[in-house]
Recover the amino acids of this structure.
């Protein structure tokens, strides 16, 4: 955060961000081309991914002391799966499993149990 306030570092930070966005945009465009991710503006997606990862690094690693592996896993999960739950298609053989609320209830119970300790 300090480096952003210093003119001698600001240009380097901006240049680094531009390179990261350009590189990530290429990878996102390729992934869209082969159907791995839904078509969207790669520039916006690149900035979104970098924003999420920057925020999570600051909060999880710096403030909460979470391991780098766990923080990276959280960032990857969010970037790949977002906020919405998957919507099973009508022909999905695992539709019953996908609609089963037990894993959610178990996760909620586990979280409540750990919080009450």
């Amino acid at each position: 955060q300090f480096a952003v306030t210093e003119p001698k570092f600001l240009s380097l930070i901006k240049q680094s961000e531009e390179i990261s966005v350009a590189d990530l945009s290429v990878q996102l465009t390729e992934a869209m081309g082969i159907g791995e991710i839904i078509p969207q503006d790669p520039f916006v997606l690149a900035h979104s991914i970098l924003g999420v990862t920057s925020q999570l690094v600051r909060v999880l690693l710096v403030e909460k002391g979470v391991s780098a592996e766990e923080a990276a896993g959280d960032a990857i999960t969010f970037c790949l799966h977002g906020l919405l739950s998957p919507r099973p298609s009508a022909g999905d053989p695992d539709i019953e499993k996908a609609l089963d609320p037990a894993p959610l209830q178990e996760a909620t119970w586990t979280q409540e149990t750990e919080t009450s300790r």
Summary: Residues 107-114 have pLDDT under 50 and may be disordered. Residues 7-33 form the longest helix (27 residues).
